[in-house]
Specification:
The chain is α/β, with parallel strands linked by helices and 468 residues long. It folds into two domains: 139 residues, Rossmann fold (3-Layer(aba) Sandwich), CATH 3.40.50; 297 residues, L-fucose Isomerase, Chain A, domain 2, CATH 3.40.275.10. It has 15 helices and 19 strands. It has a six-stranded antiparallel barrel. α6 links the parallel β6 and β7. α3 crosses α4, α5 runs antiparallel to α12 and α8 packs across α9. The longest helix is centred in the first third of the chain and has 20 residues.
């Protein structure tokens, strides 16, 4: 994960205490440094280190653009200059965080120095006039837990937006004929979101696999890694092909500058290589390069978003909604042939054979339980949304492949959402609650957040800093 860089532009208005605004700007700088936040300052441009002059704003915008900041943070040291905030935000077109330090009690003469909260009300309105989406961190003190959580959440939101705006996916082969559900509109994805596909035919992949096997060094390292971390239930030659496929896909993703892969995993590949690609997918997923099955482009987009929301702290897994739990009315089986990363597994996995195919190369393991986020970016007829919500792992019967039984609040409600669309039987999971981050990021990327449980007020309360 790239480090997120914030443009720091504290602001003030002239009729309130300038010294107090400078004081709080400096205190905020110190707090950001304590939290390890990477930020670009304006103290080399504005004489007092504050945004309130239009000539300074022009220079600040140029500096932030040259550095390429991923978000803007506007602490209102006193009331603030709302139109300068809006002008700068409009020009930069990155996520915006508003906040002001909580005001002290009036002095013995009834004088108030800052009125920061009042200024935030004004700035919010002006940003709406400029049609600028923004994130609001509640009016609180620098030492309050709401401040730290709000900053960290905003960094994750910036990471999602940054990832979404630079998506390029390696598409290996067309979708399998039978999978009409995974068709996508490549032109529309480019036009609406600047999402780019790099399609290559299967022979280009198989040629790269043969080259990797002939060279040998990286394949040998991958084979050794597999033997150390997996039970091996395939032959030596087959394991070498799995390793060669992993090396080849990584090289091709680097060649075409892609951050995720969607592969036609069956059945032409089996005729060429004699293996399933699941274990190779698993190895790349563990390295933070999401690989999804059945050429599911929307699935690859989902994985990129979830990985970014998790800030590199957890790997994602690509799954089918498959069958209901035999005993739990709100339970469901998430399963796939075996592409899930090693760190998701709750046991030492096996490289063996999948459920529905005769060729080797799938991973078998039950995933860890715990709290998860499940999500799915999808769309049709020109509209796109992000299905998202929480689940928890529960006990259930053994099944083949990589799998986990999960429980949700209301499976019938979720089932109806998936069937009625625009979603399909694929989703992405991550062992982390990133629902608030994804929900907030949607306002910046032009995607509708679609919570499968009625928890919108709970998510908003989290973003407001309640119940820290």
């Amino acid at each position: 994960m790239d480090r997120i860089v914030i443009g720091y532009a504290p602001t003030r208005r002239s009729i309130f205490s300038a010294p107090d605004a400078v004081k709080y700007a400096d205190l905020t700088r110190k707090r950001l440094e304590e939290l390890g936040i990477t930020f670009v300052d304006i103290d080399d441009i504005a004489e007092d280190g504050l945004l309130h002059d239009d000539n300074d704003r022009i220079k600040i915008a140029a500096k932030f653009q040259e550095i390429g900041v991923d978000g803007l943070f506007f602490p209102h040291g006193n009331f603030g200059t709302e139109y300068e905030v809006a002008r700068l935000a409009k020009e930069l077109n990155v996520p915006v965080l508003l906040w002001g330090p909580r005001d002290e009690r009036p002095d013995e003469n009834g004088i108030r120095l800052r009125d920061s909260q009042c200024g935030l009300f004004a700035t919010g309105k002006v940003l709406r006039r400029f049609r600028i989406p923004f994130t609001y961190m509640t009016n609180c003190r620098l030492e309050d837990p709401e401040f730290e959580r709000g900053i960290q959440t905003f960094l994750a939101v910036c990471n999602v937006v940054k990832a979404f705006r630079s998506i390029r996916i390696l598409q290996i082969g067309p979708r399998p004929f039978d999978f009409w559900s995974t068709m996508c509109n490549e032109g529309e994805l480019l036009e609406k979101f600047n999402i780019q596909l790099s399609p290559i035919p299967l022979p280009e992949l198989t040629g790269e696999v043969k080259k990797a096997i002939e060279e040998g060094t990286q394949v040998a390292r991958t084979v050794a890694y597999c033997k150390e971390n997996f039970h091996i239930a395939v032959g030596e030659e087959q394991l070498g092909k799995i390793a060669g496929l992993k090396v080849a896909m990584k090289r091709l993703s680097e060649k075409y500058g892609c951050r995720a892969i969607a592969i036609q995993c069956w059945n032409a590949l089996q005729g060429e290589l004699g293996i399933m690609p699941c274990a190779a997918n698993s190895l790349l997923n563990e390295e933070g390069i999401p690989v999804v099955c059945e050429t599911d482009i929307h699935g690859a987009i989902t994985a990129i978003l979830a990985e970014a929301a998790g800030m590199g702290e957890a790997r994602t897994f690509f799954a089918d909604w498959t069958v209901r739990h035999p005993d739990n009315e709100n339970g469901e089986l998430l399963q796939h042939c075996g592409p899930w990363p090693l760190s998701v597994c709750g046991e030492k996995p096996t490289i063996g054979y999948p459920l529905a195919f005769d060729h080797p190369g799938a991973v078998e393991a039950q995933a860890k339980h715990g709290t998860m986020t499940l999500c799915r970016f999808d769309g049709d007829n020109g509209e796109y949304s992000l299905l998202l919500g929480n689940a928890k792992g529960v006990d259930g019967p053994y099944t083949k492949g990589t799998y986990v039984w999960v429980e949700v609040e209301n499976l019938k409600r979720l089932e109806a959402k998936v069937v009625e669309g625009p979603y399909i039987h694929h989703c992405v999971g991550i062992h982390k609650d990133v629902v608030p981050v994804l929900y907030e990021a949607c306002k910046y990327i032009g995607v509708i957040p679609d919570l499968y449980d009625p928890i919108e007020e709970k998510v908003k309360a989290y973003l407001r800093g309640e119940e820290v």
